[in-house]
Structure formats: structure tokens, C-alpha cells
Write a structure and sequence with these properties.
Elements: E1 3-10, E2 15-20, H1 23-32, H2 37-41, E3 44-53, H3 56-67, H4 71-80
Antiparallel strand pairs: 1-2, 1-3
Length: about 80
């Protein structure tokens, strides 16, 4: 079963990055406020980016890499590889 790294655009224009095995369930959790503390305070607007990986290790490494990007670089990432 694949693992996914995803980026959510929040209502305030910020991004939230995470990883999961079930992208649909995880996005639903974020929307109802049980996904993460960040998305409870910064309500998610929509899913804007996904990547698929074979292992959880690969997904976690990619998540950390994306989280370290500046907002400007995250904009570039999500606009160059649309969901």
C-alpha cells in the first residue's frame, strides 16, 4: 500500500504538509478538526499537492523536506505540480 505526502492550502493562505496512507480520510480529518493542531487553528481550504511513495520512510523524508521550504518555494512546488 502506498504512502502519500500532501499539502493543504489553509484559509489564511498558509500551507500544511503531512503524510498518510489514506489521503481521503486524512483530508476529511483535517476538515473536521481532528487532523492536527495546526489545521484546527488554520482551517484547510483544499488539497493542493500530493506525492506517492512506496515506503513510509520515503514519505517522511519528503514531508520533512517540504516543511523546511519557504512559503515562496512551497507556492512554486504546488503550482508546478498541481494535485
Amino acid at each position: 500500500m502506498p504512502f502519500y505526502v500532501y499539502v493543504l492550502l489553509c484559509e489564511d493562505g498558509s500551507y500544511y504538509t503531512g503524510y498518510t496512507k489514506d489521503i481521503d480520510l486524512r483530508v476529511k480529518q483535517h476538515r473536521i478538526g481532528v487532523g492536527a493542531r495546526y489545521t484546527k487553528m488554520h482551517r484547510p481550504k483544499r488539497l493542493v499537492y500530493t506525492e506517492e511513495f512506496d515506503t513510509i520512510s520515503e514519505a517522511m523524508k519528503r514531508e520533512r523536506k517540504i516543511k523546511r521550504l519557504s512559503h515562496k518555494k512551497k507556492n512554486k512546488l504546488v503550482n508546478s505540480h498541481p494535485h
